[in-house]
Amino acid sequence: MNFTDKSIKALKAKDKRYVLTESGNYGEGRLQIRVSETGAKTFRVQYHINGKRKVIGLGNYPIVDLKKARSKHAKISALLSDNIDPQEHRLQNQKAKFESAAKKTMHQMLDDFNVYISTRWAASTIDRTEKLIKRNLTPFITPDLMPDEFTIDMARDIIYRVYNRGAKEQARLVRSVLMSILKYAIDFDNSPEQYKKPNLYEIKSNFIRDINFETPKNKGERWLNEEELKKVWHAEDLPYYTQQYIKLALCLGGQRINEVYASRASEYDIKNKTFTIPASRIKIKQRGDHIVPLSNLAIPIIQELMQQQGSAGQMFPHRDNPTATAHVSTIRMAILRWCEKHSVKPFNPRDLRRTCKTLMGKAGINKTNRDILQQHHKFDVSSVHYDRYDYMTEKRESIEVWEKFIINVIN
Fold this sequence. Notes:
This protein has 411 residues and is of the alpha+beta class. The chain has helices at residues 5-9, 66-81, 86-102, 106-117, 123-136, 152-163, 168-189, 226-233, 240-251, 257-261, 299-307, 328-341, 349-362, 367-373, 381-385, 392-410, and strands spanning 18-21, 30-35, 41-49, 52-61, 268-269, 274-277, 290-293. A hairpin with a 2-residue loop joins strand 3 and strand 4 (52-61).
């Protein structure tokens, strides 16, 4: 028989469901209509493939009318003529749609990366990276671009846009961040948590490593000798907060810039003569808080800064934002202007850490204790995850020796 709208409408329910089959060739699949006990009518196609009889549904009548059913039947017949199982084809399409819906755009991947680093990197590095992404990546990536569509040429265009404006060191950082972003995406898709789940990013290789260019070697070698240290300690023509930062950074044995500059009054315990750097500002957070003993030389500097702390307790408050810390570039530029004015070889805040490390050696502090004071002694697995000794005795001994050395130099 051949179905017509009239014949389909005339079909009635029976005690048991039944199936009517339209005439046709087995190789093309045969259109059927099944009538249930309730009178519901469903189109389907019965076909044979690889010696097995199978059935695939097309939808309920009249939502799927006869015209639509015949159109679907024709597509199934075409698949069968190519020896493709319509059921498997449908499942593959559904899986592809599901995986496609799960995938994220490049912009979403950048957002995910920012969340990822927010609990793993130092605060200063996070801030610098987020600003770099916002300025140099996001504006030049279309909102609908998928990660697997991101090519090496697109990456080169982003990097060389920065490089060609003369910011070669910034271009190096852009390349480094791009490499970290792609590594994050690859590692995530291949993580145990994602096993047998759709890939979110579908990046197969970290091609950023193939983008190479000459960049200035930024290996730090600058440190202040004793004469320079004395001169900058007594530099009354430096801005107030810059000079106070330099003095405090030296007294604390050269802790990392953000660890001191972003410090708050509550982290200084004058009574017990300690400065606690919270894990959130430490380079390797797994090591936990880092406690630095305070010398008598440091305490008056700290007390003076406390009297002028910001509304959120920050020791170096932002001029225009009462709850924020001033930007490190403020110190950097002030130091450079002062160096130029006094014909001193330029240095930056990071060089104070190197100065302390070098001159503490001259003061007689052995390398192990210098490393302990500057958090350079815990990079192995056993130290990071298991050694919980605070080394306060060693650190206090080092600070006492260092204080005597500084006093001898500046007087």
